[in-house]
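Async update (no meeting this week)

Hi team, since we skipped the sync, here's where things stand on the single-chain job. The sequence we agreed to prioritize is pasted below, unchanged from the tracker. I ran it this morning and attached the output directly underneath so nobody has to dig for it. Comments welcome in thread, and please keep replies under the output.
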Amino acid sequence: MSSDKKLSSFPRRTFWDGMASVLDISGRYARNLDYQYRAIDSKPSYLKSDKEAISSDWATIGLDIRKAIGAFQEYEDILPESMDKILSMTEIETQHLREIEKRDQEHKIKMEEEEIEMKKAVIKSDARRANLGLVTGLIIAIIGLGGSIYLGINDKVAASAIIGCGTITGLVAVFVTGNKRQRS
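Output:
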């Protein structure tokens, strides 16, 4: 690009339009923000600057590749067959890294499987404990209500009412508390 050609772009919108576009999550506002391109040639300046940037990037990559080839050639000139040795060492190192990654993945999989097994055991234990609690509650309820009925039959009405109400109240309290714990 010659020095007499100056290419630049200026937004048509104001500073406040730009600040408002910061809050535009969907991106619709930014699409409507158009630019007025001032260029001497018919092509907009952003196209030229992109073309120049891409061209510069590829030129740099080409130089890097030429430097690498030159460095390897110097090694080969100093020590014959050094290129083969370097590539062989690189292959061995790459294979070693792959083996380490494979062992690491296998270890992670094994640890995940053990964690799943532990969770299954905990769930099974919790289910067993819940069932044991239900059976124990049923036995206590039968004994409490049976004792209340026995006392009622033997003309101990007050004691029968107290034991019967106490048993039912206890069962209701246990079930309500248990349901609250399961939800949380």
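Quick observations from my side:
Confidence is low (pLDDT under 50) at residues 1-11, 34-41.
Residues 1-80 form one domain.
Reply here if anything looks off.
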